[in-house]
Design brief:
CATH topology of the largest domain: Nucleotidyltransferase, domain 5
Radius of gyration: 27 Å
Strand content: 15-25%
CATH class of the largest domain: Alpha Beta
Helix content: 25-40%
CATH architecture of the largest domain: 2-Layer Sandwich
Largest sheet: 8 strands, mixed
Distance between the termini: 88 Å
Number of domains: 3
Strand order of the largest sheet: 3-4-5-2-6-7-1-8
Oligomer: single chain
Bound molecules: adenosine-5'-triphosphate, magnesium ion
Number of helices: 16
Structural class: alpha/beta
Number of strands: 18
Amino acid sequence: MSEKVSFMCDNEHSDDRQNIGAREAVVERIHRIVKDYHFDMKELRESADTLKRLSELPEFDIARDKLPFAPELFDYQAEFVRSRARFSAFIGGVRSGKTFAGAVKGLNRGFLLPTTGAVIAPTSGMARDVLVPQYAELAEGRIAKWNASTGDLFLDNGSKILFRSADNPERLMGLTLDWFHLDEAAQLPRRVWEVLVNRTISTGGPGFLTTTPRGKNWLYRLVESWKDDPDAQIFTAKTADNPLIDPEEIDRARRQLDARYFRQQFEASWESDSLRVYEDFSPELHVLDEPWQIRDNWPIYIGIDFGWTHPSAIIWAQLSPDGRWFVFDELVEQHLRLETIAGAILGDTVSIQSRSFRARVPYSRVERVISGAEGLQSRQEAGGESALSALSAMGITRVAISRSGILSGINAVRAKLLTAESEIRLRFDPRCRRVIDDIAGYGYQQDDGGAPAGELPLKDGIHDHSMDALRYMIESVTPLKLAQWRFG
Ligand SMILES: Nc1ncnc2c1ncn2[C@@H]1O[C@H](COP(=O)(O)OP(=O)(O)OP(=O)(O)O)[C@@H](O)[C@H]1O
Ligand SMILES: [Mg+2]
């Protein structure tokens, strides 16, 4: 038995050596091809395919071989970089070396084979100021070309590394990727993860993320589900594990910060999130498995928050006779003109940037359109008219105004998310991804120590608009208020 094992191992090693030789020859050929300014893409593709085949032979194990690209790593970083799992996560405290490790892992893929990878940051500022410089610094001397407007890097072996932000996940849709890296993934919407996994299905390429935790959000649940997934691996590190960080600095933070926030930020712990406005919301409980089937006789309401540079948010929901809400349609976009908003409410097909939108129900099915008091303020782009009077001129007259304060609106929504009897009375169609992301990400302002500052939610210009529309609607539609409404 043991003889057989050693025989197999020997065999494997000699295969390895042959493979390495063959691989080096192909790598050399690729270098020659890309050095020519007008290189032949077809030839490059063929060589890349050969190289990929050689590297995919099971005997060839890059973890045993020298990494193609290996600066000095701390042990905990090296484990993450060397992981060959399809999906991997490095969950670390602030300054623990997450971005560094992620960039080494990404470049490692880039230098191994001519590939296309994507690196995603929560904002374009973070992509530009943190990720591009980190990748570029580590790849120094081996960068063939750099796109100054996007930050995209072209390595000297023909690999491309694209830098994108999560501002618009749909913009990632067209790419075919061999690998991807999400930095500060806990700050990204879940949609980004889904889109990128989709973009690597055909290549089977790895996806990895580097992040500090941020409450028990979607990422927490994803990483939890990896614990019994053979294709996924999780690595963790505290800030104190980075030998370059002065321990005194960590002690100071421990003394100054809220204990829970310290554990999250410095010890990479998944703390439940006192900073979320709707802590009871969870996709498992509140998002329907199937699209909502609109019921014939139940009333439908629209909640609307008017924006311009910040998005306008319009959401459609149906209310059951026993008081359960089902949010089934949404339109959340910047720069929506009042004509477009009116068209959307009326049920027309309206075009918005590069897509078209048509509500699932016409206006004739809508009981009321409910706005906040800002719907009555005069608007510059409507020639001084208010949004609601402009809409009324376009036929939208069944309107109500929510006049109660933000806190009572939030309490009304909370009471539907989980009633005192532990019932759920507010659910979302799975296609209403924006509202679902917003309700999960709607947070309080934080003070310097990370504790909630004040009792009002953060107006971050991202999550607050659809949340305003939601609370206007839910807070206003109560039996008492319905009795007081008069049709306009
Ligand atoms: N293996 C390493 N060798 C040398 N320096 C390193 C290494 N890993 C990380 N560093 C340095 O440690 C510091 C923190 O690293 P990095 O920015 O990657 O951490 P981070 O966890 O992403 O931090 P943040 O929470 O600020 O995003 C940086 O100055 C980085 O250059
Ligand atoms: Mg970082």
